[in-house]
């Protein structure tokens, strides 16, 4: 059985077709149109999402200025949610919307915990993904604190070469913490 989620989990924990079918039975398939919200500030966050198709952005908005501060993109084979709201069962403090038409698999916290208790392989997968996520976050913070605009840009291109042409440059500029004009200078040089 070929499936993007199965391939994703198997980078860490090999699964039989039966084990994967059981895991998949805990997810809900959702289609979301371009520009629609997956998560909206102030709403309860019931799911974490695995992206099958499309690209999304997670951001906080400054209501006074109307500026968006993008802190995550998610494309195929990535996970996204408002983690704090999801795990604390509270309302979202971020927005997540679709940059393209998207297809996602949604998993509730209850089903996530159930799978973790019932299947060591899934719990191991979650644990390793969490380590990798923390390492990635640490590297991103170090780059934002100590890296120049050029360093951040080059790191983004090296880390996500397939995203550069899929995402509007103004969104990439927001993610990198630079102006659109600075980004233009960087990719022309």
Automatic annotation (TrEMBL):
Residues annotated as domain Cyclic nucleotide-binding: 30-111
**Which Gene3D superfamilies is this protein grouped with?**
Jelly Rolls
Source superkingdom: Bacteria
Q: Which InterPro entries has this protein been placed in?
A: cNMP-bd_dom, cNMP-bd_dom_sf, RmlC-like_jellyroll
Q: What is this protein called?
A: CRP-like cAMP-binding protein
What is the source species?
Answer: Mucilaginibacter frigoritolerans
